[in-house]
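ingest -> fold -> write
write: protein_1
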Amino acid sequence: MGDKFDLVIVGGGTAGWMCAAACAAKLDPARFRVRLVESEEIGTVGVGEATLPQMKDFNDFLGLDEVEFMKATQASFKLGIEFVNWGRRGDRYIHPFGTFGRPIGEADFFSYWIRAHRAGTAAPLFDYCFPIVTALQNRFMLPNGDGNDVRSAFAYAYHLDAFLYARYLRAWAEARGIERVEGRIVAVEKDGESGDIAAVTLASGAQVAGDLFVDCSGFRSLLLGTALGVELEDWSHWLPCDSAQAVPSARSDDFTPYTRSTRRKAGWQWCIPLQHRTGNGYVYSSADISDDEAAATLLANLDGEPLADPRVLRFKAGKRHQAWAKNCIAMGLAGGFLEPLESTSIYLVQMAIMHLLTLMPDGAAIDPALPAEFNRVMDVEYDRIRDFLILHYVANEADAPLWQRVTAIDLPDTLAGKIDRFRHRGHVQAYRDGLFGPPSWQAVFVGQGIVPRAADRLADALPADLLDERLAKLAATIADAAATVPSHADFIARYCPAPAP
């Protein structure tokens, strides 16, 4: 295969072109040859249109211009995710991309809030979070960088058209030397001795050989799942939704800087505002509702006129037992699927890419320590996201068969322990690896009705009247600051207006 290390990416779409772009940006072209094989005949899923703040980090890592990227992908801003009816019917809360409160003593802010809340003197937790107060008024600004200002204590993500993002990255990557090979794969050739993948054969008869293969073939998992036989670890007993219907609609006047997730009888519905349209979908359990009823529910709850017929997707929650086996790494849907309740799909692709770049082999012989470490860190990512998603399901007041069933499931030990610790003193362990820190867990716990029985004892030292005064002042400061922020629509019109499609 020559002097260069041959990296072959199988499949385009968001996962494939994100990987290709990162390779173009960071791998030495004198040492690595990178090719991406995809077929125009095969469509992409393209429903992952909401992201997390880490996506900005990825774009910055590549060196993308934010304004250009947002115009090219019809993107809008995202300050968090609103959950409607998830705890009790009529309730709503936002999981923000920011912290709650500011330091007001020796204990953490959340402990002080618990103490005041139990005394009946605190405002709702969400009044102490600038991105939530701002988002609920459909306002947006960039963080101002002044650590003493409440308008600095948040991050932001994007709503975007995933198809346009893949197309944008393709042009960017090809301009930097990535080779695109057009063709539909009809066979996978394996080495008779090692069992490694040697090449993929295209319908034209051509073969593309490589040293390392990245499987971005979607749910088919053409290389890791089909050719190498790495099975899926089934998590559907914890996350029972197995179907989704997606449909775009006309953009509504309610141009929110947040994603909306609304609990339905047999699952939940998403609403993602882009500049040119709104993305919608219903994720549901096919055991609890028919496709026809799901489509009718979705279409009856749109903010604008539908622009197409609903498209049905089937899936199973879980991950491959190994994300890296032999000389093949799976990314995106090829490696596993967790429903997009917390917009984690693109994040998991990003993490796989970053770990690959760190653990990239330097020769055709792959040190076993590399896939072992890759699999370890990806298992941590998937497991912690899984637990966070399960929390949304089990912390609800059941009113339909699906929701009654999930409140009675046996929880993973990792989640059961976390819930017990939170109920006791509001403790959430911060960890080095994995997504979702304490503010995320605090938002979902409290938003869905789980409030700790007591606060950290360090919070007792502050006199009650002084605590109430500081909480009231903070809530007023945040409210006043939010009132100075422009509307989301006005900010985008000035900063990154996209041309009409």
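write: protein_2
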Amino acid sequence: MVSRFILITFFLLIIPLSSKCDVEEFYGLFKSGIPVMYIETEGGVYPTADKADPPAGCIGASIKNRTIVPGRMYILAANRDTVYDSGEYLESEGGMTVRLRGNWSGRLPKVAYKLKLEKKYDLIDYDKSKADKNWVLKFDQFMLPNVIPSLKINELLGLQWTPRYKWVHLMLNGTYRGMYQLIENIRRNPDSRIDISKSGYIIEYDAYWWNEDVWFETPLHGQYKYMNYTFKYPDPDEILDYQIEYISDYMTRVEQSVQNGTYTEYIDVESFARWLLGADILGISDGAGFNMFITKYDNTSESVVRMANLWDYDSMMKTVNKWSRLHTFFLFNGLFSSSDKSFTESYINIWEKEGHSVIDSTINYLRAYANSTEGRAFAESLVIDHMRWSSYSVDFNEYVDSVVNWFEGRKAWMDDEIAQMKAEVAVMPVFSDAPDNQVHYFDILGRKVEKYNGEPVKYSKDGRIGIIIEF
């Protein structure tokens, strides 16, 4: 066993350096059934970046000074047929560019990449109507395939957009870099990605704003001093001052409306409820570092802001017997405690009408995927990736079992929590016009509460928002 380990390690060390070795054959890439993507950069140059550490008062770790490297990219199917070829690089004519992407993930040994084609193409389904220039090679930092159940949850909850993806093995300048999700990135494209007008916005509530050239601050910064808003659309290189002013003013009004109970005028309540429900079902433990994308269709009063889609799944299944960290983060704590219970009602109603079906359908999908040709190819490819990156080791069948167990347990836990949520009381005094100035209390659904199960309700004495503490 020891000698076998030494032999494999020896091969792994020399393969990236030897053009005489058939890397694909050594790893068995084409036997896995997953397509193989080749990127050959001009002069064999690799994209690089410097580390970027947060300034005082900020959080996170990222990268900066990312080099953009031109080259050629082509994809071979498992039978070695060429299914795409960008051609050699010629600006606006052919080829592509590649750079490192991500924040913390950009500092890992196995890095993610952003690809930009010189000519639009659909790299997933080869559908001309869904062509785009911008693509991402992404992976979970622990190589857990959380993207599979997470995007199914995203789709079944009917969020604004569900990114398409497929698995590929990546060969970069003759070196095997591992298995990646080739996935659509967050981008305005009414035909296949986020459908907003040219006067619209895609922004992110972002812990890494300090590493961006363009960002804006709102009063919420006073509560979360390490957070601000950044832009996905318009492009930060092209955005104009009046556009920044417009969306900054609008988001300030959004935040104020959550405080004063008028938020239904400024946000798509259902999209916020569905997005948070997805995060809660998945048990996301990340808060500030979780991608929170927000869209506004145009710059008119006819459109409101919406939550876009779930994106970052590394911290899935981590909040055992707890809500996701997003549940009381950003605007959500204020929405739950607002005097207008529209958000809470929407959240509860969606769970009660769709929650079990969404989870059961995701379980069925995941089990069927594991038994499919693609699922078996993926499971084999995880083993291949582990040969390249020995720190990652995942048994796909065990992973599927763990996700199924999580979802089954999560379903029961959320039933109990939402039943309790419906019984909770917002201890918020509302004075009547009666001469005695009598105080009334209302539950989380806006119903006046005087008794529970026929018994008088005892409230907290300090008058703050709370729950029923004794019956």
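write: annotation protein_2
The longest strand covers residues 112-121.
Confidence is low (pLDDT under 50) at residues 1-20, 426-437, 461-471.
pipeline exit 0
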